[in-house]
Amino acid sequence: MRTPAAPRAPEIRGLSARPPSRRPRRPEQESMRPEGSERKEAPGQQVPEWFMRQVGAATYPEFLVWRWLRDKGYQPDIDFRFQSSFFGGRLDLGGLVADFVIDALTPPLVIRVQGEYWHQLPGRKSRDFFEMVRLLELGFEVVDVWEDDLMTRLDFTMNEAMKGHNLRVAA
Predict the structure, then answer these.
(1) Residue 22: φ, ψ to 5°
(2) How far is it, in rounded angstroms, from Cα 85 to Cα 53?
(3) Is the pTM above the cut of 0.70?
(4) Residue 90 DSSP SS3
């Protein structure tokens, strides 16, 4: 049995008194990414469901780093931590979340997985720099690995990151 439709809100000068629950998007609003910067994902480049249940939210490049570390013999939550909060995490002003903290190395290494689009924005660049300085003050070595490098040359990128080498210099 169908339920009766809810009564419509009265129209006021051509505008509804109640805003629509979902506005239709214009074609030019489909993506916030600039033209030509579409994500390059092939079929199968999705984070596995078992991984999402285990760690919560993660991106595919983060999953690649997690799997690479595990395949090299590093044990999750023993040798390295994923999505580790410092200074209150994202909820507190000045807080941050490091993607990977590898405590098995001396000095401990923080690997930050950077996305090509979001981490190139001007406001985000300064925030990333501030986060790096905070981590360096705590005695960590900080390495940024970039999404495109992980997708095209994972072993080389991770081997260099484990040595403490950044493949790109921040602009």
Answers:
(1) -145, 120
(2) 19
(3) no
(4) helix
